[in-house]
Amino acid sequence: MNIKLLMVGLMLMTNFYIIFHDIKNREISNNIIISITIVGLFSIYIKGDISYLISPLIILSIGFILFRFNIIAGGDIKLFTATSLMIDQKYLLLVTCIILCIGGLQAYCQYSMYKLTNNKNWIDRGIPYGVAISIGSLFGILASM
Question: Domain Prepilin type IV endopeptidase peptidase, which positions (predicted)?
């Protein structure tokens, strides 16, 4: 079996789990992040290009600053860092834009639901940004294969 196909299948299953779990609990498991990181490091090993480590380190550094200012959750930063191990650097800006657009759409939908229902729970729980990160990252991973 083709190893790239196996990795894509594994990432699809993992990301669907993340999407479901993040919507339900607003939490991304560290065990899932570790498994994605292992697949990402294996992907770098297969490609034989250590430069794929630069982008995740930059994402982690910027994400840490955003986390310290309470702009984004730590699990979301860890997820984007782990998935970026498998994304070619030339697609990273596009993937980031996709993530931001999907996240903005999520925020708009949740705010609209709040306005329609007057139920404050729609905005109190925050945005499950793992959904946007998972979908955007999958595009980047597939483009990088």
Answer: 13-105
